[in-house]
């Protein structure tokens, strides 16, 4: 008998342990323990322009994370966590445009936070996190997905880019 669909508790735990830690806990600790000075100043139009750009990145990233968690639950029958990964290959929703929208969402949140707060430490965390994850995709995750899903994943990989999104959403069998 196969595994059951992941529960809402499994999804909540995965979100709290992974993207919440990466985008809230670690940035909070960096800002608390390391010297911080708001680099954009406190007056003028630049603050609002930069703040708006940072806020837009955070909100867009949050939207991507929510949409991908939903796809993992509905279509993949699993969570974003590697210990309870989707049992079916997810190629719908944001996954029609890029192979890694979950991490792209987290990266957008981190970039937005570093812009919004003008923090060099948060920018460094954004760069480190992005580098580690995109390297992991190439050497770890993609070979495992190919083993797990075979030709279905190879077709998906041929048609959907890893990072920069397609202009139009891909549909299986195109």
From TrEMBL:
<dbReference type="Pfam" id="PF04191">
    <property type="entry name" value="PEMT"/>
</dbReference>
<dbReference type="InterPro" id="IPR007318">
    <property type="entry name" value="Phopholipid_MeTrfase"/>
</dbReference>
<dbReference type="GO" id="GO:0016740">
    <property type="term" value="F:transferase activity"/>
</dbReference>
<keyword id="KW-0472">Membrane</keyword>
<keyword id="KW-0812">Transmembrane</keyword>
<feature type="transmembrane region" description="Helical">
    <location>
        <begin position="46"/>
        <end position="67"/>
    </location>
</feature>
<feature type="transmembrane region" description="Helical">
    <location>
        <begin position="12"/>
        <end position="34"/>
    </location>
</feature>
<dbReference type="GO" id="GO:0012505">
    <property type="term" value="C:endomembrane system"/>
</dbReference>
<protein>
    <submittedName>
        <fullName>RemK protein</fullName>
    </submittedName>
</protein>
<feature type="transmembrane region" description="Helical">
    <location>
        <begin position="106"/>
        <end position="128"/>
    </location>
</feature>
<keyword id="KW-1133">Transmembrane helix</keyword>
């Amino acid at each position: 008998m196969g595994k059951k669909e992941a529960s809402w508790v499994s999804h909540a735990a995965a979100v709290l342990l992974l993207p919440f830690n990466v985008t809230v806990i670690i940035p909070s600790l960096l800002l608390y323990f390391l010297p911080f000075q708001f680099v954009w100043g406190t007056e003028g139009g630049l603050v609002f322009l930069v703040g708006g750009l940072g806020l837009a990145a955070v909100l867009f990233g949050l939207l991507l994370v929510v949409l991908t968690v939903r796809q993992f639950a509905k279509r993949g029958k699993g969570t974003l966590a590697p210990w309870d990964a989707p049992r079916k290959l997810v190629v719908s929703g944001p996954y029609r445009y890029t192979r890694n929208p979950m991490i792209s969402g987290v990266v957008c949140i981190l970039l937005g936070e570093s812009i919004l707060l003008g923090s060099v430490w948060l920018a460094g965390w954004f760069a480190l996190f992005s580098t580690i994850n995109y390297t992991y995709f190439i050497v770890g995750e993609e070979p495992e997905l190919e083993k797990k899903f075979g030709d279905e994943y190879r077709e998906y990989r041929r048609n959907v880019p890893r990072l920069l999104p397609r202009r139009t959403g891909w549909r299986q069998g195109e």
